[in-house]
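Entry 12.
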Amino acid sequence: MSKKQSPIAVAAKIIKSLEGATVAYDPPASKPTTGEVVPVAASSLHPAVTACLQQLHPGGLFAHQHQAIENVLSGKHTVTATRTSSGKSLAFALPAFHTLCREPESTALFLYPQKALANDQLQKLTELARMLEQTATRLQANPMMVSRYDGNTPLADRKSIREQAQLLATNPDMLHKAILRHHQKLWARFFANLKLIAIDECHDYRGAFGTHVAMVLRRLRAICRIHGSDPVFTASSATIADPQQHLQRLTGLDFELVGPEMDRSRQGRRKIWVLDGNEHHHTIGRRLAVQLAQAGLRVLAFCPSRVAAEEMADRMQGKQGLSAEQIAVYRAGLTAEQREEIERGLKDGSKRLVFSTNALELGIDIGQLDVVVCIGLPATMMSLMQRAGRVARAGREGAIVLIPGNSPIDSYYAQRPEQLFHRDNEPIAISTHNEKIVGQHYAAAIVEHGNEEALVDAKVLGPLAERIQEARQEGAGLADAAFGTNDPHGEINLRSTGDTNFKLFCDGEKIGDIGKSQLLREAPRNALYRHGGMVYRVQSIREADRQVHLVREKTSHKTVSFVRKKLILKRILRRTVYEGVELATGILGVDEHLMTLTEKDRSGRVRNTWSRPGGVPRCHLTTEGTLIILKADLQKSLRPRLKSCHPLATESVERLLAGLFPTIAGPCDPQDFSSGTLTLVGGDPAIVLYDTAPNGIGLTEVVYRRASELIENALERVQSCQCEEDRGCIRCVMHPHQDSESSKSAALALLRELQTSLAGGAVKTWEADDGNAFLSAEPSQIECPSCQASVSSQANFCGNCGHKLEVSNV
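Predicted 3D structure (tokens):
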């Protein structure tokens, strides 16, 4: 790339000549901002800190940084919610050094959602400590003064860190399992002197993970009280709806807000394009990414899944002008060493093109990127802004290219790009009313306090914890399942459904991790598994020790798992009846098991098929969801019009509503929710959208309140889709991964009936405490994994062979 050419100019030239794609949206580039600063002398920071700042930032602090720092120094819990690369981390690092200069024994805790981010910020904290005259000498005498404490910390260093660290960077997992658990014996000094708690990238705490972290932070507050400390909280967030409310839910405290309207940071010129094309979006995105990298630009390509990222990198091998060492895949499941190598490569330029999942949305400093390519639209406005914020940092130019996928949600916004960029920021979905999660953390808190009677401050843990405490003191069995272990900390997994990950091995060396649900879909026995741009064949799965053994294989083939899903309705919680339709929320059981594994070549031709592959554990989830129940009158009205297409209507609409669910919901990553169908007693079919977090977090409950809006969006999508055949396409009603049948006319007819029924108004509403509020569901049939006999999904044992079934009931 010529030094005289800007990244935007180079990208524009390549986009203009890109085969198979056209520009669907081309708004003007944003204007660069020079930033509005406040003189360092106006700050209340310790003189030693201001002297250091005069060297680092002689022009002063950005106005929003100054405001956030002043809030914290005055004892106000503060959240800074400004755009990416606006200096939020400096705004909570400086108060920690201010306190350290005033009170040499003080400590501060820096909490990061990922180890990679903690490592990145630790380097900046250490550099600042070296520059600061008051702490440089002490740092030399005590190398552990600024430390990271997580799973990668060497065992030999941990004792010294516990005894000497004053600025400590960690993550919620380590805080939960190691620090809070041993606060009395190992961390008493640290907690007694704790003055500041900084929560970085707090928007990442959502869904089940966010609910767990909310309880960890409440336990943290309770432990601080035990040690006589009352630290000030400071937090940073992406631009989300009502960050103060989100922090209140996370911590139970009230926060001051330094919001986007106060943002005075320096930003470079940024250009955005939306592309459309007649080829698959993966093909267009891969072709664009390689041409941008070949032109000398540093490119980060966000992919919709880790499978997609691996496949794109696999097809990049041998591309002219790019070596294998210049291309990488960044995703969950890599080892810490693999991730850090890629991060270093992005910073020093040795990695020219990185295909990534949303793992690189977080604020890790990965150097000066030129272009971000989004292959498939981000699920939320928050994700879009996070990805766009990876370029145009510190005044440098940058470009972002969005390539909508073929899903209903991407097609919806591809036709309405103005809506995409003018959406409101989403609220964050977490729930501190999940009885199972709160009960687990209450049990952990008992261990931390020594005994249950000593836990007198349950108010800090929240109203549900108070109810659990009262119920247990009265001898009731509320949440008793959480107390059946001597190690409640070990039983809580903050980031998953509760199942321990499987470890991936090749030639005796661990190369990564994979969750149970991903194992079912991506790595059953005989499957081809892509990892780090390489292809492996799954040789065996050892469930007892959670190991998957792989062998390298050179092939362009891919394998596809067909997973059968069974939904079981356990209990209806709420129910609203309309003419022909009922809306309900309920407790569900979701049972998934692998039926077939198919191997295909690059042309799509089937090369091999394995029926009922063994060795893969089935998955079971108990959760909450919303049901759209189709009553007999509605079915009778539809049947003459649908004729032979009648069986296709429910499944087609189910896929469509699930695909468009993000248009009415808050931040909902695809892994946060799912969908299916079931049949109630009496034969009424129901379309179900459910949370994928154990016991639910209230995410899909929005369908109960906004079903009419979702159905209207679905109608618009089908009516505006340009496919001509009745079977539709994956932009509307066709299944993207299976060869199942579908029908646009059937979907339209059902959607119109649903729209008419809901527009007529509710006939009656029942809550769970009403006698009429409960429905029994017809037990579905599943296969016994041992003898393949058909048995009830609610059975504990197979009636044919006696095999114990892996299905739990509420």
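Annotation: The chain has a mean pLDDT of 84. The longest helix spans residues 207-226.
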